[in-house]
């Protein structure tokens, strides 16, 4: 890692014009810090407009809370937090659910934690990027780099030159495919699938999320506060990857129904809303496993480079911390991408390795292998309100939570 405020900081900054693909979490955090450090970021985002409030709940753990604080956004993020305070964890048709304190659970993973809806976070981050140029409803169709920069052609037609390009475009990154080759080379299937959709708040839920475990399957639902609606989340284990087209929502819904049709609890009610659900997400829980994230003038940040798997490994925190480190190391190297990208990779690698190990472990332990495993998980969860961190970390198989609680370098 380059020492912040190194002697190089007196020389002029090079490579100022930076194109970022993706405007969710990593993209706007990177743009915010690049602007602050004297660069000119431009963001291209495939969605036609900025995100609206909604999406799924995500976690900001220790270092990501620190980045949020340095960005001056902590009060707004605190105000928008989800306010889910309890988890009611159940298994089988009999027996009372175990009541788990969310703060105690999160405290076992990190010294600081805030849960927020991803799109609420994204809107705040977007607003913090000032006069950054946004190209909504567009995508990079071609890129070629030479010694002086990168020529980029957009789907909408025009071509432009940039000094550097950063892929912050998520698990199925377009920039990664263009610069590093097909996703299949880097995607590691964890053996589980994930589906999420919205439905009316039929139970009048406020601060309690409900979770149900059974063999090979987990179902949960919680309240999205801004819309007063529920998000239902389903995780299920399959031996092999499922065969479906990523745009065939009808088929995905039928796969989900087939995997949960014999589950009791609130599942029949949740599934009765499935056909009407507009915001439906379905994907494998897949990690992106790359040893290096830069190729010449192109680099990757967030899920694009190192997704630890959706919903299992603290991907949002990793995306925020990765974006902060990338901007900081570029600044510390005065825009020299060779030195800056190398220092960024060194700085983010320990975080990535930890989150990857945590995510892989969580994907196998969160979804029980059998009815007995489901029962055991519920019994063990009784410990959460009082257990020492070391015990839970041993049970989850990592020494740390999803993201290391190490102090971040300051670049200002
Ligand atoms: C259902 C679900 C539940 C999750 N739960 C949690 C959780 O509990 N805790 C947690 O920490 N994390 C969770 N995650 C993971 C978290 O959402 C991601 O790790 C995080 O959003 C990564 O941010 P990112 O900016 O790297 O990528 P993303 O948030 O995936 O954003 C990528 C952006 O790139 C855009 N894009 C895609 N393709 C292109 C293109 N060709 N051109 C231009 N733009 C493009 C997308 O529209 C999007 O705006 C969950 C994810 C899912 C899907």
UniProtKB/TrEMBL annotation:
InterPro entries, per the entry: FAD-bd, FAD/NAD-bd_sf, FAD_aromatic-hydroxylase
Q: Which residues form the FAD-binding domain?
A: 18-333
Task: Give the matching Pfam families.
Answer: FAD_binding_3
Residues in a coiled coil are: none
List the molecular function annotations (GO) for this entry: FAD binding
Protein's name in the database: 2-polyprenyl-6-methoxyphenol hydroxylase-like FAD-dependent oxidoreductase
UniProt source species:
Stackebrandtia endophytica
């Amino acid at each position: 890692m380059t020492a912040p405020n190194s002697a190089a900081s007196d020389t002029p900054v090079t490579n100022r014009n930076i194109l970022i693909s993706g405007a969710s979490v990593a993209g706007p955090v990177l743009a915010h810090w690049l602007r602050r450090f004297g660069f000119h970021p431009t963001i291209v985002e495939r969605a036609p407009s900025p995100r609206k409030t909604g999406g799924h709940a995500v976690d900001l753990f220790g270092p990501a809370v620190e980045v949020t604080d340095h960005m001056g956004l902590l009060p707004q993020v605190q105000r928008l937090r989800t306010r889910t305070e309890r988890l009611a964890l159940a298994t089988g048709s009999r027996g009372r659910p175990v009541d788990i304190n969310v703060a105690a659970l999160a405290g076992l993973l990190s010294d600081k934690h805030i849960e927020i809806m991803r799109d609420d976070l994204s809107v705040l981050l977007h607003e913090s990027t000032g006069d950054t140029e946004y190209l909504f409803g567009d995508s990079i169709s071609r890129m070629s780099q030479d010694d002086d920069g990168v020529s980029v052609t957009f789907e909408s037609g025009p071509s432009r030159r940039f000094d550097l390009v950063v892929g912050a475009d998520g698990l199925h990154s377009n920039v990664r495919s263009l610069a590093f080759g097909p996703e299949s080379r880097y995607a590691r299937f964890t053996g589980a699938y994930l589906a999420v959709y919205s439905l009316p708040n039929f139970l009048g839920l406020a601060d309690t999320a409900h979770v149900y475990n059974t063999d090979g399957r987990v179902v949960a639902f919680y309240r999205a506060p801004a819309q007063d609606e529920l998000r239902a989340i389903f995780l299920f284990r399959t031996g092999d990857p499922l065969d479906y087209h990523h745009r065939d929502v009808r088929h995905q819904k039928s796969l989900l129904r087939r995997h949960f049709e014999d589950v009791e609890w609130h599942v029949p009610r949740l599934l009765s809303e499935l056909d009407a659900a507009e915001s439906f997400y379905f994907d494998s829980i897949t990690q992106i496993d790359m040893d290096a994230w830069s190729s010449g003038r192109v680099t990757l940040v967030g899920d694009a480079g190192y997704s630890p798997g959706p919903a299992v490994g603290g991907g949002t925190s990793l995306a925020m911390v990765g974006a902060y480190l990338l901007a900081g190391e570029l600044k510390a190297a005065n825009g020299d991408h060779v030195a800056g990208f190398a220092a960024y990779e060194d700085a983010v690698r320990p975080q990535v390795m930890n989150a990857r190990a945590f995510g892989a472990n969580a994907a196998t332990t969160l979804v029980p292998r059998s009815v007995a495993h489901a029962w055991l998980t519920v019994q063990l969860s009784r410990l959460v309100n009082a257990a020492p961190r070391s015990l839970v970390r041993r049970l989850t198989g990592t020494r740390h939570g999803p993201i290391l609680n190490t102090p971040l370098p300051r670049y200002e």
